[in-house]
Design a protein that fits this description.
single chain; alpha+beta; four-stranded antiparallel beta sheet; 4 helices; 33% helix; 10% strand
Length: 186
């Protein structure tokens, strides 16, 4: 009996080099996607969107409270306190009855509902909301400031009409909260 030599069976699988090439290509594509999407910037944009919405809602609520008020300005803008009064979201409560970090009674309004005061999404010493009311320069005035962190929204801090280019400011007088010379500090 004669034995015939079998031909080599075809290889079924990938070589180590082929696997390494595929892994390298996937890693490069993943890096490109991360650079294009930039998930950290998207997170910052989301937090900034919440900040801008919170301040717009508070601005509307405080303006309505001032318009509907029958008391003096200090009784409205500094409920239970005297000028200048200040509060910060990272140290004060979220009560909207004038005892929270915004010293305006927003809970009694009919036109605008504010059940609780908002807090900054990170609510830290670097990113928080600061409220201040004062009668300088001779009129009842208030201001709320916050810092924005995304590259897309950073230009709003310089174009909001306020005196601080490193914070976004809303209110009736945007010079009350200042690094130096204002009634209150951020």
């Amino acid at each position: 009996m004669k034995f015939l030599k079998k031909s080599a069976q075809p290889f079924k699988g990938f070589t180590l080099v082929e696997l390494l090439v595929v892994i390298a290509i996937i890693a490069i594509l993943a890096a490109v996607v991360v650079l294009i999407i930039n998930p950290l910037e998207l997170t910052r944009r989301g937090r900034d969107a919440a900040r801008l919405q919170d301040l717009a809602h508070l601005q509307q609520a405080i303006n309505v409270a001032v318009q509907e008020a029958t008391q003096s300005g200090s009784d409205i803008l500094c409920s239970g306190s005297s000028y200048p009064c200040t509060g910060a979201s990272h140290t004060g409560t979220r009560d909207s009855d004038g005892t929270g970090w915004v010293l305006v009674n927003l809970g009694s309004q009919q036109a605008v509902s504010v059940p609780t005061l908002p807090a900054d999404p990170t609510n830290s010493t670097a990113f928080h909301y600061t409220y201040c009311a004062d009668d300088a320069p001779g009129t009842d005035a208030w201001e709320i400031d916050t810092a924005l962190e995304s590259d897309q929204q950073s230009d709003k801090m310089t174009t909001d009409g306020g005196n601080e280019d490193t914070r976004y400011e809303v209110g009736s007088n945007l010079t009350i909260i200042a690094a130096s010379g204002g009634s209150c500090a951020y």
